[in-house]
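Ticket #4471: structure export looks truncated?
Reporter: QA, pipeline team
Priority: medium

Steps to reproduce: submit the single chain below to the structure queue and open the exported record.
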Amino acid sequence: MGTCLVGAAVAGCVILAIRSLRADKKKGKGSCGGDCGRCKGCHH
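Actual output as written to the record:
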């Protein structure tokens, strides 16, 4: 029973995190933002 509750809590946190990331992306607040001068992940 406890395992199911913990699993449900973790799943809820993951769902909330994904919703937040998607909302930020729609608002243009992505992790890079298109500014490759500040983005450590761009390799052009």
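Status: closed, not a bug. The export was complete when the record was re-opened. Leaving a note from the reviewer for reference: The longest helix spans residues 2-26.
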